[in-house]
Structure prediction request, 268 residues.
Amino acid sequence: MSAVPLSWYLILSAILFVLGVAGFLYRRNLITMFMSIELMLNAVNLSFVAFSYQFQRVDGHIYTFFVMVVAAAEAAVGLAIILTVFNNRGSLQVDDVDSLKH
Amino acid sequence: MDAFLFFLFAAIAVVCGINLVVQTHPISSALSLIGVMGALAVLYLLLGAEFIAAVQVVVYAGAIMVLFVFVIMLLNAGAEQPSNKSRLAHALGLPLLAALLGVLSYLIQRALPHSPRVIFGSFTKGTAREVGRSLFTEYLLPFEVISVLVLIAILGAVVLARKEID
Prediction:
């Protein structure tokens, strides 16, 4: 056997997505949670590229490109928000950011 | 050879992904995420997406992760304190995530029982020429809209991160 089926790429994508969900749920650090979101976006990108191979079309690559642009914009704004939270609270623990609960 | 490369880099991606979740220090998580992105770039190449593989390395592993590492160092973020808010959620989390993975894998296998084998070189439309042609003809409007989005994001980041000087 010299080549793997396409569905294995999709299963790898599912594994990475679940790992991203696990990181988002278990970690309590704002930056680590943010990186878990990036991991989920990467997993979905792998699915897009795999389906692009399956249908022999270039559209999946375009979607991946757009996801990357949105991720870059999201990272810039999100990290600016994290900077502001840290300047106001002096902490990166997500448990400390609970003003809306009280 | 294709299968060997797939297993090698899939294993690197999964191990780095697990390391991202397990580590408590953000800088270790960031370096693991760079490992995942590098491994994914090789998998994109195997799938024939050369342009996307290059963009993955340059934009994701290069620009976005440099931004992350820069913020981690700027804030001098240390290891996180463990939180003990909910024991039940902590205990139920892993089985439910395993169930989610099981359901996803089952659905993939059921939807694609005889998926084609991935042979390196059989998909040749992933070059910068093909992607660029599609981007500037079929997807011209989304491309222009997303450039406005990036402009708004730049302005938002500057406004949010600005220190009041007065």
